[in-house]
Write a structure and sequence with these properties.
- By secondary structure, the protein is of the alpha+beta class.
- 62% of the residues lie in helices and 14% in strands.
- The protein has a 6-stranded antiparallel beta sheet with strand order 3-2-1-6-5-4, sandwiched between helices. Strands 7-8-9-11-10 form a 5-stranded mixed beta sheet.
- Strand 2 and strand 3 form a beta hairpin.
- Helix 12 packs antiparallel against helix 13.
- The longest helix is centred in the middle third of the chain and has 77 residues.
- It is elongated and about 200 Å long.
Length: 518
């Protein structure tokens, strides 16, 4: 609050009141002194009442000025507050007008939107119901796909198809018909006496032509399906769904109601078609899987026949070399020896030349025998796998100056194809060790049990990284490890190669073959 004694503002009213009081006091003094010749001191020494009156003459105007100043200051403050309130009121009025405009626009939009919902309420409800039905259809199809997806047998798939269709459409039953070999009719899996054909059924004929579902809402008033089937199962209404596989109708699913007739709608047809489509995909996948298995079996048999043919050709070629070329070279040595003995001592130069020729022929015979051994060691046919591997390791150690360790269980002869595969794999593994491993020691383990034969070839060489090996380790001999793997797999076996840089490599093979005396 502003002070009334502030001379710059409202204090002037207090000062004016004080001056008026002094003037009144002087006026009274002048009046009394003129009549009684009293000086001012004597005037002041008069009675208390007179003094009180004199004081009041000064105080009352001063207080009056004080309160007048106070009132005017308060009045000015009130005016300022009223002006501020008036400005705030005008501002609020203006804001209210703006808000009323916005409220009117918002109300218009709300009225417009509510009008849209009122005008399109039926369409929105229909769309909501449609979305709910689509969600139910999707859920049903997903559940059926999960149930049927794990089956592989065609009859099991069709049986599960019947159960799924009955449950999804709340039907009284479902029949599955599969096409006969002659391709003229469809036989019911549930009852072999029931058949469908396009001649006696217009619905079947229509379905086969269009390859689309056909609904029969009143079976007793229609000639669409065979009367015998209608009577046998008490069919009131039904829907026929074709199972189309590779552009041919492979089977037919008949969903029927035998208690009351049912009016089929688009939703029923959509669900039924989706379920049959899932079953069709499963059947096609089963056929493809069966074809893959068949082709794989044929490929394995072909690999086995090819390996047997190669071994037979090696055996024949080795025999021809032994019985033909080596015998001829042995004859040449015998002739050269006879010629050497028939020459005189004076023909020393000719004798030396003959001896050199004999040495060349002998080396050639040794090389040919090595080739024959590599082609097909005769010991493998006569004595079996264990002696052959033992002999082969001795030759490998002697020729390459690498220590070999052979651990083998005593066992009876294995099938010829198994012995050949194991020997070839050991031969190729040792060949790779010689060329790449830089090893000083090789261990070959051979064992057998009731589950089959196990062979392991290990070395302490430099090893290799599989990330850097894109092809087989070696195929110079024509029988690389990849070819050996295919040969072992054709015998239902498995090959595992384990290698660590700086620690060596291990080639492990297992063939599940029954071994007597294991």
């Amino acid at each position: 609050m502003t002070s009334p004694f502030d001379l710059r503002r409202n204090g002037k009213y207090t000062a004016a009141g004080f001056i008026v009081g002094v003037l009144l006091l002087l006026a009274v003094y002048n009046y009394d002194s003129a009549s009684s010749n009293l000086d001012f001191v004597e005037f002041v020494k008069q009675s208390r009442t007179q003094n009180l009156l004199i004081i009041l003459l000064v105080v009352v105007p001063t207080l009056s000025g004080f309160f007048v100043g106070l009132g005017r200051a308060r009045n000015k403050e009130l005016k300022n507050q009223m002006s501020s309130l008036a400005r705030e009121r005008d501002k609020l009025i203006k804001q209210e007008r703006v808000n009323k405009g916005k409220s009117s626009k918002l109300q218009g939009l709300l009225d417009q939107e509510s009008g849209f919902f009122v005008d399109n309420w039926d369409e929105l409800v229909t769309e909501k119901d449609k979305l709910r039905e689509e969600a139910e259809v999707s859920s049903t199809l997903l559940q059926v796909a999960l149930e049927i997806g794990g089956l592989a047998d065609a009859n099991e798939v069709l049986k599960m198809l019947s159960v799924s269709l009955s449950r999804a459409l709340f039907a009284d039953g479902c029949l599955s018909f599969i096409k006969e070999a002659n391709g003229e009719s469809f036989v019911c899996l549930n009852d072999s006496a029931a058949k469908l054909d396009s001649i006696s059924s217009t619905a079947i004929n229509e379905m086969l032509e269009k390859r689309l579902p056909v609904a029969i809402n009143r079976a007793d008033e229609s000639i669409s399906i065979d009367d015998e089937i209608v009577a046998r199962f008490g069919i009131k209404s039904a829907i026929l769904i074709p199972c189309v596989k590779r552009d041919q109708v492979h089977a037919i699913a008949m969903v029927f109601y035998n208690k009351t007739a049912h009016e089929f709608n688009d939703r029923d047809i959509q669900i039924a078609s989706g379920i049959v489509l899932s079953a069709t995909i499963v059947l096609e996948n089963a056929d493809l899987y069966s074809e893959v298995i068949t082709n794989h079996s044929q490929l394995q048999r072909l690999i086995t026949r090819l390996a047997n043919a190669q071994e037979e050709e090696r055996r024949r070629f080795a025999r021809d070399l032994h019985d033909g070329v080596i015998q001829n070279l042995s004859g040449i040595i015998f002739s050269l020896s006879f010629l050497e003995n028939s020459l005189s001592s004076e023909e020393k130069s000719a004798v030396a030349e003959i001896k050199q020729i004999e040495k060349i022929v002998e080396d050639t015979i040794a090389d040919l025998r090595q080739v024959i051994y590599d082609l097909r060691p005769t010991i493998l046919d006569s004595l079996g796998l264990v002696p052959t591997l033992e002999k082969h390791l001795e030759r490998f150690a002697e020729m390459n100056k690498i220590k070999t360790i052979f651990n083998a269980q005593k066992q009876t002869r294995l099938p010829k194809t198994v012995e050949t595969a194991l020997f070839r794999l050991a031969q190729e593994a040792l060949n790779n060790i010689k060329k790449h491993a830089q090893a000083s020691e090789v261990t070959l383990d051979l064992s057998s049990d009731n589950e089959g034969v196990v062979m392991s070839v290990k070395d302490n060489g430099q090893g290799f990284s599989f990330e850097n090996v894109k092809t087989e380790i070696s195929n110079n001999s024509g029988f690389g490890l990849s070819g050996m793997r295919e040969r072992v797999q054709s015998l239902q076996g498995d090959v595992e190669i384990i290698s660590t840089l700086g620690e060596g490599t291990s080639v492990n093979v297992k063939i599940p073959v029954a071994v007597k005396g294991a």
